[in-house]
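Ticket #405: bound-state structure for uridine-5'-diphosphate.
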Amino acid sequence: MKGIKLSDYEETAGSAVIEEIMALGERLRGYSILHINSTAVGGGVVEILHSLVPLMREAGLDAAWSVLKGTAEFFHVTKLFHNGLHGQPVSITGEMLKAYSEVTHNNREIIAGDAHCIVLHDQQPLGLTAYRGDTKSRWLWYCHIDPRFAVKEVWYVLAPRAAVCDAAILHLPEYARDLPVLQYFMPPSIDPLSEKNREVTPEEYSSVLNKLGIDPEGPPVILQVSRFDRLKDPVGVVEAFRLVREIRDCRLILAGGSADDDPEGASVLAEVLALTENDPDIKVLSLTPDADLEINVLQRRADVIIQKSFREGFGLTATEALWKGKPTVATPTGGLKHQVIDGVTGLSARTTGEAAAQIERFLAQPELGRRLGGAGREYVRQRYILPVYLLNWLRLLNLLEGQRR
Ligand code: UDP
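RESOLUTION: The complex was predicted; output attached.
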């Protein structure tokens, strides 16, 4: 992100978007906004904040980002909240809530400073609402998960905390929930100029593939990029791939790392490695959090990109795939359903068998892949790129602050 200016996005986003950003930013000049999450590395929220915060500053806001410091026990609890929000049965004990409150208490200094607006990203920092009385700030809860299927054990813990905020932001209108606060809907975005998404040179392309031990030629590559998380169904991806391979020579790459606030990554990775050992056509890449260029090149190398999640708040990996014009297959769930539109920007698959069939369709019909991939890129350009996202943020803040300023 270093050295990238708002004007650099003009070519991609169009001048009207940049002009509106400058005009709305001017109205909010000096407005301080503090984003709080719980990890500096890994996952979609980090991806967003890395790019958004510097651009908010350029637009005139006094934007900051603080990371709550958790313990292993805290992250265990917040991962249970995460799974419960996604609808998995979980049991939350009094001890767990105590660990959550203790870490929250130890982090309460984060909110000192009276920013005009404090944004709590996801469930980890939501406990800080207990200290709202100590600030003059406006508080927003930004839920990056699809909460519709949240189990009550988790919803009844989180909802009262969210209710202390002025408003909640959810990715999609259908995610609206029974909260006694205003709810806004704002999907996230990818940064087209970041290491993860920018164009790469032929030298970078070859050198990264060489480093990762991937043949730039050879049989088609099917790819899923995701944290090693059961909700991303890596096992289902392996099974779908093996069905495709019965009829066609191809390879599978599962690329992912972990996030500091996700303690389950290591065990899921171990499961996937056990399932795929001795299979010469499957490569499991455990990436470091800074492997953005690697992910970029892998996505560009792929012939078909799959996102076989059971649940997905939005699914930025699909956004990244579509932005690169790739034939993309995804489960029609959460944000994936809005991005990978069957027969328009990609192909949908509900089951492992369907995923295999859709991958095979793309491999058998390269022209179909080119057409849907091209439509996918344009679809993302209009809706899910960083300047559009920044504009949505500025519109929301202007709306919220309108009467006050
Ligand atoms: N990601 C990454 N390294 C990995 C796995 C994922 O940088 O090993 C990135 C991925 O490219 C995407 C984000 O993390 O930008 C994941 O966002 P998404 O919304 O797909 O899922 P989440 O991890 O937030 O559930």
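RESOLUTION NOTES: The longest helix spans residues 366-383.
TICKET STATUS: resolved
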